[in-house]
Fold:
Amino acid sequence: MKEKRLPDIVYSLVFMMIGIFSFVIAQGFPEDFIMKLGPDFYPELLSVALIILSLTLFIRTILGKNTSKFIAINIRDKRFQKVIISLGLAILYAMFLKRVGFIPITILFLFAFLLLLNIRKPLTLIAVPIVASFALWFVFQKILTVSLPIGLLSLLGY
Amino acid sequence: MDFALFINSFSNIFQFNVMLAIFIGVAGGIAIGALPGLTGTMGVALLVPFTFGRPSAEGLGMLIGIFSGSMYGGSISAILINTPGTPSAAATSLDGYPLSKKGQAGRALSMSLFASFFGGIIGVIIMTFMSPIIAKAALEFGYVEYFALALFGLSIIISITNESMIKGLISGIFGLLIATIGMDPTSGYPRYTFGRMELLSGPSFIPVLIGLFAVAEVFNSIENLSTQQKLDTKIDRYLPSLTDIKRSTKNIIKSSIIGTAIGSIPGAGGDIAAFVAYGEAKRSSKHPELFGTGEIEAIAAPEAANNACMGGAMIPLLSLGVPGDAITAVLLGAFIMQGLQPGPLLYQEHIDVVYNVFSSMFIANIVMLILGIIGIRFFVKVITIKKEILFPIIFCLCIVGSFSMRQNIFDIWLSLIFGVIGYLMIRAKFPLSPILLALILGPMAESNLRRSLTVSQGDPSILLSRPIAIGLYIIALLSIISSVIKQKKIRKRLESQSQEKL
Amino acid sequence: MKNVVKRVMVVLLLTVLVVTSFSQEFPRKPVTVICPMAAGGGTDAVLRALSREAEKFLGQSIIVSDNPGAGGAIGHSAMLQSPNDGYYVGMITFELNSLPPQGLVPFSYKDFDPLMMVNQDASALTVKADAPYNNIAEFIAYAKANPDKLTIGNAGPGSVWHVAAGLMADTAGIKVIHVPFDGGAPAATALVGGHVNAVTVSVAEVQGHVQAGALKILGIMDTKRNELFPNVPTFKEQGLDLVFGTWRGLAVPKGVKPEIREKLAKAFKSAWDTENFTTFAKNSSLGLVYMNSEDFGAFLEKNYNEVSAVMKKIGLSKK
Structure:
């Protein structure tokens, strides 16, 4: 029972921190001399509401009145590690998108992602990334005229 | 209402060029609506070159086609891959995706199409016959009423929350706080931007939407990949069954009226209408506890509402000259270019143009139905792709979709951050839709609250000074009370059931 | 693995071929024009009309994107956040010079490269058609009898119409409540619905409602009467020496290549000259004033100093 409570205690504390944090920052907003209520009024109102609500959740959880279930996060769980790795891949993707360019980085990203999800067939591993990234590129860049980053290709004379 | 003229207007539309324009508009609208990150406004921009130097009926027909097409298109990706293609489809994904996971994507898609079609038609009918009355009512909406409307919209948080009400409220307030990021809507002071230029106009809505729904779902699915039971990849159906239609008829009619009413208020659009309709469908349902697990009515309601919205949005545009959203703004521009000033005079001087708009909307909805019926058999193919291959591609689509709105890397980070937030919140059973609702309604609530208090010089009693506003508060209160009572009853029922089992 | 590398190389080469074969001169894709005010208002109307004509000279479609809010601050900052590749043009307005003196926004006219001035519009005091006052003197008398009761809608805090109303109140010695909206059109609609007592927006923004008989104009802050409403006297004729209004022009964020700037300016100037556009402006009572990039730049600096002084005088600027 005790372990089950822990997550909601952590979450309510996190939301309480967010409330306190936004309240403190709102104190620094300038006064509005044109309108009576400045830019700080509304966020302060919300911060106080958030603090009260998360305090209620906190107390209810401590008292054992909170019946909601929680799917525990287990860091040693292989499946959870996959989530973390996929997030890492996405972060790398976003970081290098501009420098490397859309098509090459998307191919690499998809390739790595497929490997992560236990795809081992060579044909799938190669064909899917190439076809998918060219298809996305064609739809967004050519039909919808979104400028996707060119990246490395600019070195080749674009 | 001059019926001879109205019937005559159909002959203006039944011309090859005009029909072609509507057809292209609807098809393009469906495609753009289905792609995350691309909204109807962008579709308008892309298809406008086709209308270069064409007569007004064609240009208007195409714009109207895009409008209806994108409203339906958004639900396709919402149902199939939990990625609402447009904000208006966010409510549809709540039950559409669970249905699709159960192998009933065809059932969900065909109901969405059916509801969209009827919603659209009912919206047009209401608009055709009641424009002047509704326009007058829309004028009654001042700052106090807008604030009340926003509060009413936010009250739906209670009815759409399944598990713990307090967690729903925390999600909602958290969303409202996120909505305050960026320049203050009244003074222009940058709040919580930490010096980032990209945040000045607030966290952009589309990347946040993609993050909370699609990215979070990808994370969630990766984790459950091996445990997922094999999907029934046989396509269930392309047309809604009679039982489903019977079950949803009441909701479709009710939601279409809600959608038209909300659409007719400038500044309130399909996204709000869809959530209000969803909340109402759930509140009045005999099995509200099943909402969120794949209820067919939960797809019919928001889809009927967001398409009906279009008829509503035309009312203030045509009779007051006030556009309610980006697409009607483009339409306004198209009118002005033709030398027509929408507004009170349009009905007196150019009633033929008004009728042309009405009949194009009828036709656009019919074209949408036909294209949808043909298209569904291709759309559903998406779920037959192996999950291990589909998820990486969805992830890429999410990233490109977030990027393409403003062509900004920052928006990719935004959708990843909200993907993580969404994932963590799903784990702890904090509902995500309150955040979305708060992001949509937050700015409306704040700027009108402050406007009201400026007029009253700080006296809060002004918020109770208008009858429409009081009416909205009462409806909000009643819907909260009735859903609280219902949830208590259900909890008791479930408890007694589980005790019996023991 | 080698196989993969090879394939990737082939793909890369193919991409280069495709990309280069598609590259042409500016503009290769639609150009976005950012409007800092709500759709349906004067700024949006003039911008849409001009863009529609400019498409023909630019050879690409032009997307008008409305970014209203915070009296124009949100739209102007959106322009500065856009890529400076020439595919994003902004319509800068009077508010660019009235927002910085309030000390709330982190930008000024110096962050833009002006392309051209498009129009200037005077403020007009407009009230409901059935209001008990029929001219400026009666309005002022009513306001003096009911201090802090009359509400005047404007297009946002620090927006041109707010400053206009403030200047009017200051000159006439009356006390009113200023109510900000997200642009002139929402303010005018609120007036029609009876949620405010008056607006000080431009003639173009109330024209439709006035012609439909819902609203009436009491006076115009211009040197001459408006062509569409020749019966409405100016403020000066009614004994209140007030000439005040907005200006609108096109600009790009700093850093756009000069040759692209020139191309844009040329296309929009050609559009400005078309008969379609001038007829549109006349029918919607928009005042047309053109200045080229250089004159517009000089104007911006001069206007900035004047506006700051006015705002200081009427107590709207940072103390």
The longest helix of chain A spans residues 2-27.
